[in-house]
Amino acid sequence: MSADRGRRRRPKLLPYLLIGPTVLAMVLVLGYPLVDMVVLAFQDMTREQLFSGAAPPWAGLDQFRKILGDGFFWTVVGRTVLFTAVTVVLTVLCGLFTAQLMHRVSPWVRAVISGVLVTVWAMPAMVAASIFRWLFDTDYGVTNWVLSELPGVDMIHHNWFIDPWQGFTIIVAVVVWGSLPFAAITLRAALAQVPHELEESAVLDGARPFQVFRHVTLPVIRPVLLMVTTLNAIWNFGVFNQIWLMRGGQPEREYYLLGVYSFIESFAVNRYSTGAAIALVTVVLLLAGSVVYLRQMLRTGELE
Amino acid sequence: MAIRMSYRPLVLTFLLSLAATGCSSGSGSGSEAGGKLTVWLAVDAQESWPQLVQSTNDRFTKAHPGVQVDVQYQQWTTKNQKLDAVLAGKNVPDVVEMGNSETTNYIVNGAFAAVDPARFDQSDAWLPALADACRADGKTYCVPYYVGARVAIYRTDQFSGAGVAGAPKTYPELLSALDKLKGTYSAGDPNYSALYMPGRYWYAAMAFVKDAGGEIAVKDGGKWKSSLSSPQSVAGLTEWKRLIDTYYVGDRAKDNSDQPAVIGQGRVGVFYGNTWEADAAADERSGGDPKLKDKFGTFPFPGPSGKLLPPFLGGSTLAVPAKSTRKDLAADWIKMFTDRESQKTLIEVNTLPNNTTQLAEVAGGGINGPAAQAAATGGWMTPFAPGWTSVEKSNILPEMLERIANGKQSVQDATREADQRINEVINER
């Protein structure tokens, strides 16, 4: 009897033991700062308290009232949402296209593409942003020079960042460029799961390529597609490095996204609590977005 | 089942990506061993007077055997963010270099320990531009280190090539010299600027504001108020914009941080900067061109008002954080680093000293003479307001100037907007 119970209990305990260290690490590395940030958002912390270590006074919902009533904050929210939508759509479409390409080409071409993708992936955002910044430099950039070689085009001394639409086009390019490898490689793995017989029989039944994709391929890769889309949305919503670096550490107000805005309020203007409140609102917005993903995940789980 | 099996690479890639993001956010902060003095200096010391740091450390370790000095060099753009982060903890540097526009906020918030001025060499002759930035409530919280006064630096060979006789003394003479340079060198080179004046170079632009009788901000009944949209300030900025339009062809969204490297390309006739930037422009280590050695001269920049363009007296001070556990040793290191002998070394590398006595010795002649002269006759400092660091760090001035330089906004609109933004933060601690 007791031996029986022991045997039954062990498999229950083991998974928790295995995941324990991970959970502990997450609580220490992510949980503590997160709790601290939430608390900070409801206080009014200034540098006096920062330097002395004294407890900051409580401010209740003041910080939130301040930012939610500020038109500029909503401009930044709208800009961030638009930026995320554009980068995610572009990343997924380009990723899907690259994955399809890799699926169809000969093995050595595929190896070359994979190699290139992994190289891009291995490049830190910092390096990538610096390289793009040099490419598009006003006075010495190669892009302006190459474009000016075309007949009838004069891009000498053209500054790409004066018009934020042009500037964001380049920033979007850097971000998509950086997140493409993950999307492409993941989707390529998913495409490999599509049973060949299914595609063949669909073609035999007279389905056109797009119809094959729509009715045969898509249902199989759907969960992965969803995962790639959601993860990209989460990453790109909080994008910071690329903008910070492309604007030389001094982004203009036209280039603020939520991450940059929160950082500037916290560490440039020294309104630590306002910065924390902005970050908190960002997290809430992201969670709202993730609900869609979680629901879909649960639903696919039920189906299986 | 087959489907489930091959999700494995997927999981792997996912984990790998998590690991990759995890790595990039790591930050290092070593623990301090006993008997170590940590000194934060700005990169200028590393680039332009490393021998002074070395000799000070040698003297210091001789006087305090067993104490190791760890000098860490900081970039101006990121130094204060790092400083805030460490000041919030316990593990702070023992000496930290602070620009004279940065000190006020830290002093009012109790970040620095008071020091006894009598302990330091020539403290009765400290330059007001530096000493005032260190004083609050009758106490002294930092020690003057060096000062810089910007002057006009010109290419002597291009001046003679364009037929300009000597350094201009008045504003009309300066404009005619620039016209001649432009006429001679711009035709063959679309990248040639007679005057280098990038749009975000706010120390230059604000000098024109001061020259026209304007102010960045004024103190009115205990409160600071931005006054960039005053008629005088607007007049100064309008003249500054005219200079850019007429004589500058480069990127207007830049600041002066890579000035020596750009000047080193040899396509600039006159620029506004610190004297040592002329040396840097001829030095390969800072991106300059060694062929330009001895081809630079300096003159005090004449202002449109008829007087000298009031230079920004940008300088550095050295402070001891209140949380330092080795305050006495720190003060001792600062004492050696700023005494009369050390200041002599600074003068040798064309930097201006921290006191009026030695400044008078420099003003006599040499390439740094005009700068010393300008520093001695007057100059301006950023407002000693509690929130001034916030104004600087949120880039309100460079952004305003960039919009003016690019023609995105009129001087009036841009300054009015900047006034608003500055007023929001300048009185905040």
Q: What percentage of residues of chain A falls in helices of 4 or more residues?
A: over 70%
Approximately how much helix is present in the residues of chain B?
40-55%
Count the beta strands of chain A.
0
Average pLDDT over all residues of chain A: 89
Overall shape of chain A? globular
Total helical segments of chain B: 20
Walk across the major sheet of chain B and give the strand order: 2-1-3-13-6
- The rough form of chain B would be described as globular
Q: Detail the poorly predicted runs of chain B.
A: 1-33
Keywords:
heterodimer, A: 304 residues, mainly alpha, B: 429 residues, alpha/beta, four-stranded mixed β-sheet, globular
How would you describe the overall organization of this protein?
The complex is a heterodimer of chains A (304) and B (429). With 304 residues, chain A is mainly alpha-helical. Chain A is 78% helix and 0% strand. Chain A contains 13 helices and no strands. The radius of gyration of chain A is 24 Å and the shape is globular. Chain B has 429 residues and is an alpha/beta fold. Chain B is built from 20 helices and 13 strands. Chain B is globular. In chain B, helix 10 packs across helix 11 (231-247). The chains are: A mainly alpha (304), B alpha/beta (429). The A-B interface holds A 46-48, 50-53, 121, 124-125, 137-139, 156-157, 159, 161-162, 182, 185-186, 189-190, 192-193, 220, 224, 249-250, 252-253, 264, 267-271 and B 3, 6-7, 9-10, 13-14, 17, 20, 24, 77-78, 81, 84, 87-88, 105-106, 109-111, 190-191, 200, 249-255, 322-323, 389-390, 393-395, 398-399, 402, 406, 408, 425, 428-429.
